[in-house]
């Protein structure tokens, strides 16, 4: 009943908070269940670190790479959107210009029709 009266901003914050707590609990569980030291081979050296820390580092690197990918996709889509908006504005300006020309031509046609009618009535 309480959540029915809350706005979308609150729901977003609530979802983020819940997700953060969930990840902290998963991390805490990984830390408790995997305290063993494991060797981690780098190209030039080998270090030993807790498996839970190694998993956390891999998770953070994965999240950073995913966010970088989504950021690049977002930039690409924004660029395409601006390009299409510019093309739409150009087409809208062209439509307005064509409508103005059409009105001018209709006005000229009406004027010429009136002149023709007046000439026909004066000839009779």
Automatic annotation (TrEMBL):
A GO cellular component annotated for this chain's UniProt record is:
plasma membrane
Q: Which Pfam families match?
A: LapA_dom
Keyword Coiled coil listed = yes
Give me the segments passing through the membrane. Answer: 12-33, 53-72
Q: What is this protein called?
A: Lipopolysaccharide assembly protein A
Taking the record's annotation, the residue ranges forming a coiled coil are 81-115
The taxonomy runs: Bacteria, Pseudomonadati, Pseudomonadota, Gammaproteobacteria, Thiotrichales
* Keyword Transmembrane helix appears in the UniProt entry: yes
Q: Which positions fall inside the Lipopolysaccharide assembly protein A domain?
A: 34-94
Record's keyword terms, sorted: Cell membrane, Coiled coil, Membrane, Transmembrane, Transmembrane helix
Against InterPro entries, the record matches this protein to: LapA_dom (IPR010445)
Source taxon at top rank = Bacteria
């Amino acid at each position: 009943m309480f959540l029915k009266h809350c706005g979308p901003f609150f729901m977003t914050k609530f979802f983020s908070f819940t997700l953060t707590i969930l990840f902290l609990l998963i991390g805490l569980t990984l830390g408790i269940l995997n305290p063993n030291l494991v060797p981690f081979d780098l190209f030039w050296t080998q270090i030993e670190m807790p498996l839970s820390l190694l998993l956390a580092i891999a998770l953070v690197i994965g999240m950073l790479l995913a966010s970088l990918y989504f950021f690049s996709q977002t930039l690409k889509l924004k660029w395409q959107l601006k390009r299409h908006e510019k093309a739409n504005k150009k087409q809208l300006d062209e439509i307005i210009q064509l409508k103005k020309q059409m009105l001018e031509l209709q006005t000229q046609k009406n004027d010429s029709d009136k002149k023709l009618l007046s000439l026909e009535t004066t000839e009779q």
